[in-house]
Amino acid sequence: MSPDEIVEKALEIIGEAVSTDPLDFQDHETWKFLGLGDLLASATASDLKNQIGVDVKPDDFSKYPSVGEFKTFLRNFGDGSSKGNGVTASSRNDSHIPNTEPSDPWEGVPKPKVPISVVLQGQPNAASTVVFLFPDGSGAGTSYGTLPPIGDNVCLIGLNSPFLRQAQDFTCSIERMARLWVGELRKLQPKGKPYVLGGWSAGGYYAYEAAKLLIANGEKVERMILIDSPCRLQFEALPPQVVSELTQKGLMGASGQKKAPEWLVQHFTSTVISVEKYMPTALPAKDVPQHVDFIWIREGLVKSVAESGLEVDLNIKVTRFLLEPRPELKTVGWEELLPGAKYTFNYMTGNHFQITQPPHSDDLGRIIKSIVT
């Protein structure tokens, strides 16, 4: 078969597996976003080999995680430039599986479609305390715009993902994402003033990596605020199948009767892929911020998973973390990354996805005010 015929036949087989017309596939979409989990990927790889003789391995769907990359990979079977599971260097887009980070973190990154920082309250040069808040998987730092006034001497800055509204280009590691933001932080922070960094969910990972970068550059990070952020040392990345279930049931990113917008789901999916590859290393005790404040919720997304109709694997800890009611969590693994800090623990209303939605945002604002003023 010609390369184009191989691609056409393969996409028909994959489309059948994920119940999607192959004509609807978009090059930027990832297999995980389309619902091709590990078990389904294994079965689909077997079908490709048996039906059209293409020796695809299950992990090829991870090596070439988008439709466009996988099509390029498949064409090599037709033109003879690749045998078995091999692939020529030129056929791989290494930005999805980086081995080394470029010296310039913005290399190859498209111009952001939205400002990467938004001053939500106060002015950085006039405030005694500047609080930088990193976004959750949605990528929208503007979600913190619902917070009530924190204080006359407090400036609140929300950080937007550089890939907001263009999630198809979000292939960066968590560490590189932090590098994309650090220049903005240093530009906005008055010189010599200690940093206060916070983050909700995956935003906690960004805040942590940004802290490491700032400290390495001689800056002082005085405080970290971790908002319902499950430590990656103890919790897995959220399985794509759970993302799909929550989206379909209107439990993720929904507001009132409105379901999550498509851009949010796409960015969340890209975030999950980056989190899967992320495994943080500890800060030396001498560099750890003096204060680490935890804000946890206690409510689950549902009162009973069994009665919710959700088809999820509760053997996955992070799935239980999101769905089920919880006890009052403490450091839950973060103490290994931030040893020796003074920890405080606060608990707010709402579930994980309601944190910046009224009225729960009022509770979050109250807690942040008690921490920083």
Automatic annotation (TrEMBL):
Residue stretches making up the Thioesterase domain: 131-368
Gene3D superfamilies: alpha/beta hydrolase
Domain Carrier: 11-73
Residues that span the membrane, as ranges: none
A UniProt-annotated Pfam family: PP-binding
SUPFAM superfamilies reported for this sequence: ACP-like, alpha/beta-Hydrolases
Signal peptide span: none
InterPro entries membership: AB_hydrolase_fold (IPR029058), ACP-like_sf (IPR036736), PP-bd_ACP (IPR009081), Thioesterase (IPR001031)
Region feature Disordered, mapped onto this chain: 82-109
Skewed-composition ranges (Polar residues): 82-102
Name used for this protein in its record: Carrier domain-containing protein
